[in-house]
C-alpha cells in the first residue's frame, strides 16, 4: 500500500520507513526537516494524493523544559494532528496509525493491600525532597505494589507533552467516529536505538546516559534508580507500525496498543548496562528528581500480541550493548 509517513526524518520515523519499505510498501515521507509541515493544510493535501493510509509519527517530543513550551507542543502535536485528520477526511483516506505514548497513562498501575487497584496522584514535592519516591495509596497512605498497565486504564497525562499526546488520541477517535475511519494508537514505551536524538533537554534517558559516557562522565540516575520502565528497541517499534498498518482496527474505532518489550527494567539497571557495555564509568545515583516524572510505568503487552501478532524481538542486553557504542 502507499503510506504517507509523517516525521519520516526523525528517530522512529526513519526506522518505520525502512520497515515499510522492506515489506514492499510505497512510503511517501513527510517532515518539517524536509520543508513539509503537518499544520499546513496545503502541504498535507498535496501529500495525501493517492495514499491508502497515514502513519503519523511527526511531533514535538520530550517532557518540556518549562511552561514556555506549551504553545509549541499544542501547535505541532494538537493543531498539526487536527489539520492532518481534516485533510484525510477530505481526501477520503480512512486508515491511520498514530504514534502515541505511554505518557498518556501518567503513573502506572498500582495495588493497595487494603483498597485493591488504585491510581495515585502526582507525587508531592515535599515527599520527593525527603527521598520518599514511591507514591502512597491515595486512600490510606500505605505502600503500594506496582503492576502492569493495560490499554483500558484511565488516561491521566501529567505534563504538556503528555497532554498533547492524549489530545492526539482524542481527536483521532472523534475523526474515526465521524468518518468511519480506523485508528491504531500505538502507545510506545521507552524507545531506544540507532539515531536516537541526543543531548537535547528532550532526549530520552538512554541517549542522555550515552552522551555522558562519551564525555567520560558517569551516567546520572535520578531518584534512587529503582523507577521501573519498559525499554523497547526502535526496530521493534517499527515492526509494530507495519503490523498495525496491515491489521487495521474496525471502521469507526480507535484501538490503543501498548508497544513494549514486556520485560521491565529499572532506570538504574539501564544505566548500569550501558556503563558496562561502554566500559565505564559506573553510574551515580543522585537522588535528584523532576516534578512531573512518574515513578513506575510498565506495560501489559498482551493486546498487541493477541491482535497484531506483535512481540518484541531485540533482547535488552543485545540492544543496549549495541546502543552504548553507537548502534
Ligand atoms: N522516542 C520515544 O521514546 C517515544 C516514546 C513514545 C512516543 N513517541 C512518539 O513517536 C513519534 C516520533 O518520535 P521520535 O522519537 O522519532 O522524535 P523525533 O524528534 O526524532 O522525530 C519527530 C519528527 O517529527 C518532525 N516534525 C515535528 N513537527 C512537525 C511538523 N509540524 N510537521 C512535520 N514534521 C514535524 C520532526 O522534524 C522530526 O523529524 C512522536 O509522535 C513521539 O511523540 C516517541
Ligand atoms: Zn490503601
Tell me about this structure.
- It is a single chain.
- The protein has 327 residues and is of the alpha/beta class.
- It has helices spanning 11-22, 41-48, 70-91, 125-129, 160-179, 205-214, 234-246, 267-278, 302-308, 316-324; strands spanning 2-6, 26-30, 53-56, 95-101, 110-112, 116-118, 145-146, 182-188, 190-192, 220-221, 228-229, 231-233, 254-259, 265-266, 284-285.
- The protein has a six-stranded parallel beta sheet with strand order 2-1-3-4-8-13, with helices on both faces.
- The relative contact order is 0.15.
- The model has no long low-confidence stretch (mean pLDDT 95).
- Zinc ion is lined by residues 112, 114-115, 137, 139-140, 142.
Identify the notable features of this structure and list them briefly.
alpha/beta; globular; 10 helices; binds zinc ion; binds nicotinamide-adenine-dinucleotide; 327 residues; six-stranded parallel β-sheet; three-stranded antiparallel β-sheet
Q: Concise description?
A:
With 327 residues, the chain is an alpha/beta fold.
- What is the radius of gyration? 20 Å
Query: How far apart lie the N and C ends?
Result: 30 Å
Name the overall outline. Answer: globular
Strand order within the widest sheet?
A: 2-1-3-4-8-13
Strand tally: 15
Biggest β-sheet: count, sense, barrel? 6 strands, parallel
Order of helices and strands: EHEHEHEEEHEHEEHEEEHEEHEHH
Name the average pLDDT.
95
Helix content class: 25-40%
Assign the structural class, choosing from mainly alpha, mainly beta, alpha/beta, alpha+beta, or little secondary structure: alpha/beta
Low-pLDDT stretches: none
Strand content: 15-25%
Amino acid at each position: 500500500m502507499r503510506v504517507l509517513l509523517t516525521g519520516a526524518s526523525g528517530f522512529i520515523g526513519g526506522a518505520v520507513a525502512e520497515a515499510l519499505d522492506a515489506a514492499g510498501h510505497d512510503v511517501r515521507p513527510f517532515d518539517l526537516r524536509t520543508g513539509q509541515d503537518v499544520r499546513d493544510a496545503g502541504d498535507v493535501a498535496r501529500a495525501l494524493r493517492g495514499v491508502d493510509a497515514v502513519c503519523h509519527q511527526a511531533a514535538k517530543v520530550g517532557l518540556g523544559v518549562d511552561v514556555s513550551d506549551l504553545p509549541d507542543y499544542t501547535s505541532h502535536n494538537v493543531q498539526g494532528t487536527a489539520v492532518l485528520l481534516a485533510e484525510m477526511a477530505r481526501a477520503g483516506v480512512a486508515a491511520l496509525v498514530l504514534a502515541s505514548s505511554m505518557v498518556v497513562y501518567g503513573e502506572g498501575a498500582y495495588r493497595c493491600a487494603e483498597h485493591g487497584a488504585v491510581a495515585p496522584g502526582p507525587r508531592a514535592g515535599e515527599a520527593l525532597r525527603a527521598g520518599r519516591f514511591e507514591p502512597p495509596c491515595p486512600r490510606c497512605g500505605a505502600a503500594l505494589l506496582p503492576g502492569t498497565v493495560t490499554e483500558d486504564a484511565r488516561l491521566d497525562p501529567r505534563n504538556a507533552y503528555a497532554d498533547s499526546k492524549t489530545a492526539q488520541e482524542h481527536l483521532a477517535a472523534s475523526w474515526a467516529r465521524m468518518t468511519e475511519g480506523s485508528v491504531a494508537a500505538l502507545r510506545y514505551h521507552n524507545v531506544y536505538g540507532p539515531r536516537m536524538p541526543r543531548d537535547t533537554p528532550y532526549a530520552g534517558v538512554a541517549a542522555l546516559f550515552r552522551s555522558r559516557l562519551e564525555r567520560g562522565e558517569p551516567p546520572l540516575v535520578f531518584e534512587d534508580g529503582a523507577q521501573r520502565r519498559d525499554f523497547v528497541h526502535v526496530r521493534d517499534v517499527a515492526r509494530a507500525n507495519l503490523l498495525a498498518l496491515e491489521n487495521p482496527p474496525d471502521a469507526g474505532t480507535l484501538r490503543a496498543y501498548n508497544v513494549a518489550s514486556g520485560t521491565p527494567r529499572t532506570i538504574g539497571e539501564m544505566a548500569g548496562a550501558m556503563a558496562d557495555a561502554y566500559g565505564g564509568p559506573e553510574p551515580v545515583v543522585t537522588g535528584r528528581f523532576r516534578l512531573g516524572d512518574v515513578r513506575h510505568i510498565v506495560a501489559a503487552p498482551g493486546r498487541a500480541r493477541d491482535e497484531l501478532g506483535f512481540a518484541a524481538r531485540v533482547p535488552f542486553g543485545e540492544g543496549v550493548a549495541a546502543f552504548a557504542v553507537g548502534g
